[in-house]
Structures are given as structure tokens and as C-alpha cells.
Amino acid sequence: MRILVTGCAGYIGGTFTFEALKRGFKVIGIDSFINGKKNNIKFFLENYRESFKFIEEDLSDYKAEKLKKELDSIKIDVAVHCAGLKSVDESEKEPLLYWKNNVDSTINLLNILSNSNVRKVIFSSSATVYGDSDIHPILEDFGIEPVSTYGSTKVAIEQMLKDSSRSKKFDVVSLRYFNPVGSHKEMKVYESPYSMPNNLMPRIIRVALKLDQKLQIYGTDYDTRDGTGERDYIHIDDLVEGHFKAVEYIKDFKGYEVFNLGTGTSITVKEIISCFEEVNGIKISHEYADRRPGDIAKCYADPSKANNLLGWSAQKNLEDMCRDAWKAIKNNLNDAK
User: Fold this and answer.
1) Spatial separation of the C-alpha atoms in residues 220 and 224, rounded to whole Å
2) Exposed/middle/buried for 101, CB within 10 Å: 0-12, 13-18, 19+?
3) Catalytic position from the list 48, 150, 222, 233
4) pLDDT, tens digit, 9 for 90 and up, residues 263-292
């Protein structure tokens, strides 16, 4: 099977690409390196030259000539669309950047796929589409009310894909990620803490590396167990396994379907800090700050639909996530930057 992976140099797309190559899939990867790491591509080319093809291109460029040319010569079975900017905080400061990069890129990709007769698409969506839900755990049929620009772009893309599937152009599975953390079991692809990240785990690791003196905890007055935000953290290996279940599912599926990928358990900011300290034996100094625009009190999944229809469930716990996230950086200190 041949899989096109957009965002193949990034944390999620790169981890999926690595595991797909290990499992014997042929992968055509595309990335513009806005967020991705060139070291990931170097590793794939050095170790999987016969089964990995890389195209450096920005999908928000309407022409995307390199990808068009490649798809004219290669039969793609399924496209896994992971590319996109993903910071809630940054999206509130740069909304037009997020609409251009996330939505325009997807429109261009769909046009190229349609012209190449590729109709199977798996989309990296996000739990941010649910906004500040009053009911937890969250089911897929709950209301869609994003409270950030990032979430709005995911909603727009989902609607575009749903419309396209209704017109019989594409069969689509949207995977609504909750909060992926940790590292692939071989520690070759991981989330870098060096590029001023907005996600919690790489910011914790920056303190562990002494790149930052203290971790800022944004908001301590939420209506949660300890006043800090609650999220559903999922190990990257479990998240990627959900993608392979979706690849198998979409082979014979027609239409549009959406699945939550989460554990169904909520963890507060303070709890994940305490877990990281305990399993790694490192003290994480922290201080409190005001809430950030677009942040919400809590968000965690009901993953029963993915359990039942995809045959998928999360297997790893918070200790695994904290241990693997730190171990990957320790093992790659010379290359992590």
C-alpha cells in the first residue's frame, strides 16, 4: 500500500511515517519544514530509501507543482493529512496565517488528490473543535463550538471534507486528537522542546533541560480538581496506532466518519507535572500566570466509538508518556535541536 503523508517531518506525521515504513508501507511524504525537522527526513531517507520518497513543498502554494507531478506517476491508496499549524495561542495572535496555512493548504491538497483520482483521506483533526463543552466525556456528536482560530480552521476543514464526501469525491475519516505526548518507542522521532513550544510537555522538558528557569502554568482558577486545566493526554504510539486502524477501516468505507482518539481520562496540569517529576526524578520549578486566550477548563474524550468501530483503544498510561518524552530527549541531545 502507498500512503501520502503531509507534515511527514513533524512530531505526529513523522511518527506515523516512521511506523508506516517499519510496517512495510510505501510512503510519499511532503513537508515545508514550517514545523518539521529536517533530521527526521534525513533518517527516513538513510534507512528506508527504497520505500520513502520526500517532496519539499508548501501546500498553501496553489501550484504545488512537485506534488502534482509526483502523483501523476504514482498510484496513492490513501492520503494521511497531518500538515498544519497547531498552536491555540499563536492562532489567536495570527488568525490569517492559520486560515491560509491550514485551510488553503487543504483546499489545494484536495484539488490535487481529486485530479489524481485519490479518494481515500484520513484527516488529523482536533478536540479543539468541541470548544468549551459543559459535558464530559465528549462524544463525537456533541456540539461543535470552537473558541480559538486553530479550532475554527479544523471545523472548516472537517466541513469541507464532509461536503466533498457527500459529493462522492472522497471517502474521509477525521481523527479528532486529544493531547498527544511521549515519544515513539524507538526514540527516533519526538517532539522538540527547542522551538519555543506552546504545548505543555515540551515546555516541561525545557525546564528539565534548564533552557527555562520556570514553567508557567496558565490559569489556576478553572473549575477543575485543582484549578488548573484538565486535558486528555494520549501517548503518541497509541495515537499512531489509531491511524493504522483508520487506514484499515477506510479501505472498504464510503462516506464521512469521525472518531475521537483519546484515553477517556482527564489529567490536570499540576498532575502531569507531578508525574513527570516522580518518574524522571527531576524537579520542575513553576509559577502561575494568567489564562491564555483560547484556553478552556477541561477537555477529555469518550473514545467508545473508536473502540467499537476501529477496534482501537489507548494502551499506555501517563507514566509511560512522561518517561518516554524525557528519555527521547536524553537519548538525542546532540540532534534534538
Assistant:
1) 9
2) buried
3) 150
4) 999 999 999 999 999 999 999 999 999 998
The predicted pLDDT at position 292 comes to 86
User: How many residues are present in the chain?
Assistant: 337
177 part of the active site = no
pLDDT at 336: 53
The DSSP 8-state label assigned to residue 4 in this structure reads: E
CA 218 to chain centre: 22
Cα(254)–Cα(100) distance, integer angstroms: 29
Distance, first Cα to last Cα, the chain: 33
Predicted confidence band at 131 (pLDDT cuts at 50, 70, 90)? very high
The three-class DSSP label of residue 263 is: coil
Mean pLDDT of 226-245: 98
Contact 68, 15 (CB under 8 A): no
Q: Each residue of 200-221: pLDDT tens digit?
A: 999 999 999 999 999 999 999 9
In this prediction, residues 54-61 reach a mean pLDDT of 90
| pTM for the model | 0.96
Q: Which residues pair with 171 in a beta bridge?
A: 120
CA atoms within 13 Å, Cβ hemisphere of 213:
1
Concatenating the DSSP letter of every residue in 209-222 gives: TTSSS-EEEE-S-S
Rounded CA-CA distance 276/205 in Å is 9
* 53 strand-pairing partners: 28
Query: Position 84: which residue type?
Result: G
Helix (H) or strand (E) holding 68: helix 65-73
Contacts of 301 (CB under 8 A, 6+ apart): 127, 137, 138, 176, 178, 232, 260, 261, 262, 263, 264
Is the bond preceding 202 in cis, omega lying within 30 degrees of 0? Answer: no
The position carrying cell 498510484 is 75
Residue at 165: amino acid letter: S
